Amino acid sequence: MSTSVHSRYHAAFAQALAGALGVPAADIESQIKPADPAHGDLSFVTFAVAKAQKKAPPAIAASLAQSLQVPGLEVKAVGPYVNARFLPLPFTQEVIDSVRLAGAAYGSDAEAGKGKTVVIDYSSPNIAKPIGFHHIRTTFLGHCIANLYRALGWRVEGINYLGDWGKQFGLVAVGFQEYGDPARIDDMAHLVQVYVQANKRAGEDPAFDEKAREFFRRMEASEPEAMKLWNQFRETSLKGFKRIYKRMGIHFEHIEGESRYQDRMDAVIDAIAKKPGVKESQGAIIVDMPYAENEPPVLLKKNDGSTLYATRDLAAAEDRHARFQFDKSLYVVAQDQALHFRQVFRTLKEMGQPWADQCIHVPFGRIHGMSTRKGQVVELDQVLDESKERVRKLVDANIASGSLVTEDPDGLAEQIGLGAIAFGDLKHNRTSDYTFDWDEVTSPEGHTGPYLQYAHARSATVLRKGGGVPAGYDPALLTLPEEQALVRQLARLPDTVRAAAEQYEPSLVARLLLDVAAAYSRYYTAGNKDREKRILVEDNDAVRAARLALTDATRITLAAGLTLLGIPTPENM
């Protein structure tokens, strides 16, 4: 397992403190926090030590600081804190060289998860329905989490677990028989129209609703005609889904659905009957285990004999462990389903499955502010189209003003539009709700995808104007406060990637990239105010080469981070 530059210094500081205090380094590492930038980079507070030794914290801090000698760090005491600051050398060179050596793989560690497997269940739209805007959280979060684990060397089995079984397909089938055009059975939009009409009719007409239920029972009985129609609906939907996923740059190792387990329901129920047991409740079959007050039971089979989500999820969990022998199985599904997954995982544990604790629900909050159209779902494709159209206006305006030259304005607008929507979601803490705002997400300024893409494009442009990446450079020349601040941000990506994977929290990477972009913007702007601080400084080739090397490291870091988030990285904006 490789160690980042930042982690090495953190570990060295912890080791020195541990040696001075006579305790294991592991006891100290978690107590070292980021310092106030005015006083250093790393900080250790001495309150606990002072209490144990019955001495004043400032006295303890002063004594420790005086006794510590850590290569590459300047150690000082400030009140009760022992602070360590990275010395410009060798830290600056180590960071820049590590970034440039890793290139596109910066932030990755192929050894960290070597030999481990993670299954990630995400996106999971329903057949015969469009991929709605509400799917962006599970889709982008799942895709990014998969990227993070791949970067850390895990074997990733991403599963798009389609909702392709249940009464809704009975609704589509009887709706199609009533309202459908057989010539348009391959038209996804037509199937959606049929479903909307059928669903409305079922809510008003109990007899029609019963026809849908009966069709699903025919599906569960594998009646050939019913299965033939279902297969046609499924293939039509898959064709539409794959086009949208390709547009978003998203790939799944497996696209499979609930239908995969239609013939395994009885075996699952039989296994549960042995342990922990099943019982009948109002004609339905439920898992026989203790429930909290007012907690609904785990329903395995309804009184009409049809199965439910829980039954299929239990079968899927067992199948996935048998196929992949996973170390983790993640379900990137909305917070609303928290009870469902708690009960499924608890049932697996009650069944005696030793891997039940390796099944993890990764919940997320809701999006507000995206209104529905005529009572129907806002389609994700439509949102991507609108984002592209809004961005295209900005692209055209920049072309007209002469500030942008591109041979493919439409392709550029597509890249920026996708980045706007993806980053607009991923920058938020996963479990938080947020309000969608068009003007905010597509703005080239502020905490947005276009702002980050522009920072990347600006660094690429500076390199082009500067004649490309320098063959060599002198890191001792990078002494400006803006340069040292930028180097510190670049150093954080590897540790941030690891933390984001451990916490299933892509927003950690998103926020770091904003810090990198802001630091680079301040560096670039400083050169506009003071010509001696310009990256492409005149009449000093050595300083120019050093600053281009730092710019190259910045470009690489932004590109690596944006790629992990699934966001395109145009080099000209």
Automatic annotation (TrEMBL):
Subcellular location: Cytoplasm
All residue ranges annotated as the Arginyl tRNA synthetase N-terminal domain in the record: 7-86
Sequence ranges assigned to domain DALR anticodon binding in this UniProt record: 452-573
EC number, UniProt record: 6.1.1.19
Chief site of localization: cytoplasm
CDD domains per UniProt: Anticodon_Ia_Arg, ArgRS_core
Keyword Ribosomal protein on entry: no
Annotated HAMAP family: Arg_tRNA_synth
Protein name: Arginine--tRNA ligase
Lineage: Bacteria, Pseudomonadati, Myxococcota, Myxococcia, Myxococcales
